[in-house]
Amino acid sequence: MDFSDSFRIVNLAVGVIMILGGISQFFNLGFQSIIIGAYVLVFGLGVALLEFQIPPQVSRYASFMFSFLGRGVFYVFVGSILLNNGVLRIIAGSVIGLTGLAYIALEFVPSVEPPANMREADQGWGAEQV
After folding, report:
1. What are the CA-CA distances from residue 127 to residues 59, 67, 71, 103, 121 (Å)?
2. For the purposes of burial, counting CB atoms within 10 Å of the CB of 52, is it exposed (0-12), middle (13-18) or buried (19 or more)?
3. Which of 118, 117, 111, 122 is nearest to 1 (CA)?
4. pTM of the model
5. Is 76's pLDDT higher than 90?
6. For residue 38, what pLDDT is reported?
7. Do 72 and 104 touch, CB atoms closer than 8 A?
């Protein structure tokens, strides 16, 4: 079965939730909250934009975004950053983290293939051109 559209919608939703979670971090008005908010906002924009266009630098320097395992660990990381005070941030962090755990589990299910935009940069280990 082809789940490419479903994965694209999930990734876009996670990107939007990251953006909203990053914006919500600015309401604390602390230095740490502003820095975390800026990072999460940039991460959310990056995740959402990867669904439309893949720059060649991303496949070279952020190749972990092109596997279920790498993207799942990244989502768990960003979700754990958002788990902070405030109900909306806890909900956003939980949704992103649970999506990451689901992606990590999908890495070990051989019948589910990654969508086309996650396979474009997947050349395997050591496939960099020198």
Report:
1. 12, 15, 19, 24, 10
2. exposed
3. 111
4. 0.85
5. yes
6. 93
7. yes
**At residue 72, does pLDDT exceed 60?**
yes
Measured CA to CA, the distance from residue 3 to residue 14 in angstroms comes to 16
Residue whose pair of structure tokens reads 């079965």 in the numeric block? 1
Confidence check: pLDDT of 117 > 80: no
Find where tokens 């799942």 sit.
72
d(CA 9, CA 24): 22
CB-CB contact of 14 with 96 (8 Å): yes
Q: Could you write out the DSSP letters of every residue in 60-127?
A: HH-GGGGSHHHHHHHHHHHHHHH-SSSHHHHHHHHHHHHHHHHHHHHTT-TTPPPPHHHHTT---TT-
Q: How far is CA 6 from the centre of its chain?
A: 15
